[in-house]
Amino acid sequence: MTRADKVLIAAVLLCALLGLVTIYRHFFISADQLLPTQATITVAGKVLHTIDLDPVGGNEMMQITGRLGPATVEVAGGRIRMREANCPEQICVKQSWIQAPGSTIVCLPGEIIIHIDGLAPVDAVTR
Amino acid sequence: MTSRGNLLLILCLGLLVVGVTVFLSERRIKEYRSEQFLMDTLVSIKVYGDDAATLPLAIAAAYGEMHRIAALVDRFPLPGSEDCRRSDVCRINEMAGIGPVHVDADTLAMLLLAKKYHALSAGTFDVTIGPVLDLWDFTGDVPKVPASSTIVETLSLVDIESLEVNAAESTAFLRKVGMKLDLGALAKGYATEKALQALAGQGIKKGLIDAGGNIRVLGSNARNAPWRIGIKDPRQADALVAIVTLEDAAAVTSGDYYRYFEADGQRYHHILDPRSGYPASENMSVTVVSQDAGLADILSTVFFVMKEEEALTLAEKLSVNLIMVSAAGRISHTSGLAAHLEVLPGGAYRYDPR
C-alpha cells in the first residue's frame, strides 16, 4: 500500500464512523419517543413547568401565576386541565381535560399555555 | 497493491457509501416556530427551509403584517387616544353620523370585501353588527341576555347599506350616529393571509400559520405530504370530527363553542345573526376550505348563520369547500372536499356520505 492508499482508507473510515454516529443518533431520537407523555406550562412565553402525564398517576394540583393572577392546574390519570383561573370568560376552564399529544389549552388574558408534547396525528387543528 | 489491500479498499468504499447516505438523510430541512398573543388570540407560525438564518426574519415579517392589520381594526381603544388615531375602525366609529374618514388601503380592501359578501349572503353577514355585539358584551365579566325590545331597537343601527365606502378617495363613512363597525368576522383571516404573503415574499416555501384555529398553510408539510388539519369536535374537548388535507390553502372554522355563556340552561354564543340580533342557531360548527384565509374567515361566518342546504348551495356556487356540523348533529360537506376529507368514526354525529 502506498501512503496515498493509507490516507484514503483513513478518510473512508472517518466517513463511515460519522455515518455510524448518525445512525446511533437516529436510534436515540426514536428511543426518546418512548418516554412518558409530557405537558409543558408556559406563562408569557416562559416555560414554567414540564410535567410527566402518568396514566396511572394520582391527582396533583399546581398553583401558577398568570398575567391576571393565580391559576390552578390539575393533573390526573394521564390527563391535565385548568381547574381554576382568574380570567373573565373561563374558556380555558370550560375546555376541561386534555390528554392527546399535540393538544393545547390556552388562557388568553392570563397568557398561559398548557401544551401536551409529542407527535400529533395532525399538523394543526381548526376550531 | 496487495489483494488484501484491495479488499480493504472495497470494504471501506462500501462503508463510505453507507456513511454518506446516512449523513445526507440526516440533513433534514430546518424548522423555526414562534408564538405570539395577538388579535385576542394565540397566533403560532412555523416555517421550514434550508437556510436557518432567513426563517426568523420571515416570521418577524409575518407578525409585523398581523400587528399592522390588528392596529387598523382595533375597536376598543379609548376615544381620542393614540391607539384610536392609528385604528381606522375606531376613527370611522367615532365619526359615525359626522363625516368620512380617510383609511388605509388594507382597511379599504376589508370594507369592500365586507360589502361584497354581505350582498351575496342574503343578509347573514353584516360588519355593522357592532352596537348589538356591545349589548351582549360577550367579552365582559358578566355577559347577559339583553331585553328583546333593546335588541330590536338597536338593530336599526345594523345596516351595512349605510356604510359608504369610496374606493377612489379611500374613505369610509357610517351615515347614522351610533353605528359601529366590527371587523371581527374577517380581520383575523385577512391578517393571516397578509402574514402568509409576507412569508412567501421572504422566500419561504413551506409553513403554517395558526391564528387561534384559523389555519393557512404554504406548500406541503415537512414530510413533503399535504398538511393534515384536524377539525375540532364542537362538543367534546380534545376530539376531532374529521381530518382535512391541504396544500397552499386555508381552513377556517366558526363554532358556537368558543366564546359563549349560559343563562337559564341555554347557550348564547358570539356569532350573531344580523337579521335577528340573536346568536345564530342553525349549526354547531362550519369549516371553510379555500385558497384565501380572508375569504375563508368571512364565509365561515356567512355559512354558520345559514341553514345547511342554503350554505352548501352557496359554497358550490362560490367554488369553495365546506364541512359543517348542523345543530341537529349532522355532518355534511361539499362534494369537492370528498377526496381531501376523512370523517372520523366514533363521534356523536350522523354522517351519510352522498
What key phrases describe this protein's structure?
heterodimer; A: 127 residues; alpha+beta; mini-chromosome maintenance (MCM) complex, domain 2; 3-stranded antiparallel beta sheet; B: alpha+beta; T-fold; 2 domains; 9-stranded mixed beta sheet; 10 helices
Give the % helix of chain B.
25-40%
Structural class of chain A: alpha+beta
**CATH topology term of the largest domain in chain A:** mini-chromosome maintenance (MCM) complex, domain 2
Number of DSSP-assigned strands of chain A:
8
Count of helix runs of chain B: 10
Strand adjacency order, main sheet of chain B:
1-2-6-7-10-13-14-15-17
Q: Which word captures the global form of chain A?
A: elongated
The CATH class of the largest domain in chain A, by name, is Mainly Beta
Which residues of chain A sit in consecutive blocks of at least 5 with pLDDT less than 50? 29-34
CATH hierarchy class name of the largest domain in chain B:
Alpha Beta
What gyration radius of chain A follows from the Cα positions, in whole Å? Answer: 23 Å
How would you summarize the topology of this molecule?
The complex is a heterodimer of chains A (127) and B (354).
Chain A: H1 3-32, E1 38-43, E2 46-52, E3 60-66, E4 69-76, E5 79-85, H2 91-94, E6 104-107, E7 112-116, E8 124-126
Antiparallel strand pairs in A: 1-2, 1-7, 3-4, 4-5, 6-7
Chain B: H1 3-26, E1 30-38, E2 41-49, H2 54-73, H3 82-86, H4 88-94, E3 101-102, H5 105-120, H6 130-136, H7 148-154, E4 163-166, E5 171-174, H8 187-201, E6 206-211, E7 214-218, E8 227-232, E9 240-246, E10 250-255, E11 260-263, E12 266-269, E13 283-290, H9 293-305, H10 308-318, E14 321-326, E15 330-333, E16 341-343, E17 350-351
Parallel strand pairs in B: 15-17
Antiparallel strand pairs in B: 1-2, 2-6, 3-5, 4-5, 6-7, 7-10, 8-9, 9-16, 10-13, 11-12, 13-14, 14-15
